[in-house]
Predict the structure.
Amino acid sequence: MPPTLPPPADMQRALALLQAGQLVGLPTETVYGLAADGLNPFALRQIFAAKGRPVDHPLILHLGDAAWLPRYAEPDPRAEALAAAFWPGPLTLVLRRKPGVPDEVTGGRETVALRVPAHPVAQALLWAFGRPLAAPSANRFGRVSPTTAEHVREELPGVFVLDGGPAVVGVESSIVDLSGPLPALLRPGGVSAEAIAAIVGPLGASQTVAPGTLPGHYAPRTALRLSHRPDAEAEVARAQGLTVAILRAGEPQDHARRLYAELRRLDALGVDLLLAEPSTDAALGVAINDRLTRAAYRAPE
């Protein structure tokens, strides 16, 4: 399904809001973002307030083109190779930041995360704005990410949202740390680890903090459990008096596209337990299982 293009008047309104330091719900190919001027500390602080996000949790800067990258990060031939292969697209690169990138973007760290989104609405807005946009997922911190404009309106009422249609990838970008000697995959996403390693070689480990990597994240309010035998587990739970809904797996690309919408729909049913069937443990399935594992996490009491 091709992306929806909002009316020109909506694009102009979004541009005016960003220029005034306000927030805008922005469609990307991964999920909808809560966008603000990526170089304006006042605007950036509104993101943290609206989401209830910890201020030391770094943001991703969205760029209009790979040619913008040297303005905000130190050059790296590995970044150039990955950008040539996957930008615009669902890949975020973590690099040493240049002076002028606000601490609100980096969480006070010396690294900055950047990507070039592929969605035509995001592209048009970035080029019209002429500056990077910080745009974490447009939801309350730790909750299920939005993949439609309506999800954003439900989650963050009062925020103006550009409707670009349903997100076509459905899970967040892969994040690769290039700030150390070995590249490292910090978060699986829309570009597989195998595809990344084919460009830059073996992937190592990193302690760099990245968005969406806390043990508990992407979580519905209803308790969620992963299950390879959801029907059998549901039967046991129902015998115990619990109400249950099942999120079934499928072909990974389709599964990823509907993952968050299905989590939101099932969460609204008011059942006692959600059982989620894992995806295949390869390519996009790795990103799906990462999100489900974090969504199912419950902190020790």
User: Anything to note?
Assistant: DSSP finds eleven helices and twelve strands in the chain. Residues 252-267 form the longest helix (16 residues).
